[in-house]
């Protein structure tokens, strides 16, 4: 470890100084006149600084930046949107364009802005409840540990190598999770469409998108299993929402739902266990499911009560498995993708081939076993990714604050 000295009550290696950020990075403000490549908040990955390509079109004037400048997201700074520019461009929206001064290595400065302690200080200074933003007057005055530029370069090289290794592991594990999720979808689709016995006799269903079905399964229509109803006036019950990933769950259990719940819930619809709830605008994405609890949901959704004979667990998986979302897309109406709408009458007219009720239950049991196995693997892998991300952040903190001497390692 390096020899330590005390500066302003905080231990720093010899040669390091606490310098206000605005003396290291100059905030750019000149409006763009070149019309270069546009970068917005959504083009920057949180905590890694990777560029994300999107098809979004942005209006308004931006700020010119050049290669080596750093973009920092001032809106919701806890997202840690920091980008070291590889090429010249135009920063739009809630981004600061910051130019490293001659005594600053750009890569070191970018890592410094990604340091969790720095992000916490910036986030703690924000104003605005719904759209919290940082102010440069405060952020620029934050004193940051600043070593000689040779040390900055060594730290940047060290972190480039070490974070690169960690990011590579995270990428592999992320791909593994994606493969597991695809395997899960394929297994569910196979079980609900063909049953558990691969050798069972099948016949042509006569429906293009359905293909062959077990010969003993009975053809019907969705209207044989569901009937729409709308019961209101239960505003004291728990608010439920529909997710394509989870089905019908308590809305408060997620913090990523941008639709605000109104104060007046008198028009919200009653949902009972085993009711089918459909988001008409997102049915083509698989946003529907069989409810397991009693509650209320948006008046814009469709709620249907079960009729006829079917196992709710089997039906839940069947309605959400491929190719059903694709089928819902075929029967939806709308000019643009985000306006496609599936009407209840068209859904109820869809053909369905159902196994005997006991077979439905066996299929549902098998799916439960498969889901438990696959999701346990996903959970373990996600935990390992979280640990790697924690290690990445801790490494950055230790390096840019002088807690470890990286010169030999770099």
TrEMBL record:
What GO molecular functions are on record for this protein?
DNA binding; type I site-specific deoxyribonuclease activity
The kind of enzyme this is, by top-level EC class, is hydrolase
Which SUPFAM superfamilies does the annotation name?
DNA methylase specificity domain
Q: What is its EC number?
A: 3.1.21.3
User: What InterPro entries does the record point to?
Assistant: Restrct_endonuc_typeI_TRD_sf, Type-I_RE_S_subunit
Q: Which BP terms from GO are recorded?
A: DNA restriction-modification system
Keywords for this entry?
DNA-binding, Hydrolase, Restriction system
Q: Which domain of life is it from?
A: Bacteria
Which PANTHER family would you find in this protein's record?
TYPE I RESTRICTION ENZYME ECOKI SPECIFICITY SUBUNIT (PTHR43140:SF1), TYPE-1 RESTRICTION ENZYME ECOKI SPECIFICITY PROTEIN (PTHR43140)
Protein name stated in the entry: Type I restriction enzyme S subunit
Q: Which organism is it from?
A: Actibacterium naphthalenivorans
Provide the taxonomic classification.
Bacteria, Pseudomonadati, Pseudomonadota, Alphaproteobacteria, Rhodobacterales
């Amino acid at each position: 470890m390096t020899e330590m000295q005390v500066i302003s009550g905080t231990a720093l290696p010899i040669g390091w100084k606490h310098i206000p950020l605005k003396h290291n990075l100059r905030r750019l403000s000149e409006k763009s006149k070149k019309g270069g490549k546009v970068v917005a908040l959504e083009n920057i990955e949180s905590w890694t600084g990777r560029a994300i390509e999107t098809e979004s079109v942005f209006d308004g004037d931006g700020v010119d930046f050049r290669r080596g400048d750093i973009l920092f997201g001032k809106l919701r700074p806890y997202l840690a949107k920091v980008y070291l520019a590889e090429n010249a461009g135009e920063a739009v929206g809630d981004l600061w364009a910051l130019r490293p001064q001659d005594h600053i290595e750009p890569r070191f400065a970018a890592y410094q802005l990604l340091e969790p302690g720095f992000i916490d200080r910036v986030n703690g200074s924000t104003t605005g409840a719904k759209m919290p933003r940082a102010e440069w007057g405060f952020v620029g005055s934050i004193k940051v540990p600043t070593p000689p530029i040779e040390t900055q370069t060594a730290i940047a090289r060290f972190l480039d190598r070490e974070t690169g290794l960690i990011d590579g592991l995270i990428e592999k594990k992320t791909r593994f999770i994606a493969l597991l999720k695809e395997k899960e979808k394929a297994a569910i689709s196979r079980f609900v469409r063909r049953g558990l016995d691969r050798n069972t006799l099948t016949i042509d269903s006569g429906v293009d998108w359905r293909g062959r079905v077990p010969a003993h399964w009975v053809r019907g229509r969705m209207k044989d299993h569901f009937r729409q109803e709308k019961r209101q006036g239960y505003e004291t019950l728990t608010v439920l929402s529909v997710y394509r990933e989870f089905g019908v769950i308590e809305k408060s259990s997620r913090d990523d739902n941008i639709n605000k719940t109104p104060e007046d819930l008198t028009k919200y619809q009653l949902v009972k266990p085993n009711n089918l709830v459909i988001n008409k605008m997102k049915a083509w994405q698989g946003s529907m499911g069989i409810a397991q609890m009693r509650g209320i949901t948006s008046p814009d959704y469709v709620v249907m009560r079960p009729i006829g004979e079917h196992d709710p667990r089997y039906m839940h998986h069947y309605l959400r498995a491929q190719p059903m979302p694709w089928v819902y897309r075929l029967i939806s109406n709308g000019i643009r993708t985000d306006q496609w709408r599936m009407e209840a009458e068209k859904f109820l007219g869809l053909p369905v081939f159902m196994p005997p009720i006991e077979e439905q239950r066996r299929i549902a049991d098998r799916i439960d076993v498969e889901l438990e196995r696959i999701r346990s693997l996903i959970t373990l892998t996600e935990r390992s990714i979280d640990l790697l991300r924690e290690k990445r952040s801790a490494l950055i903190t230790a390096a840019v604050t002088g807690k470890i001497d990286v010169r030999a390692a770099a």
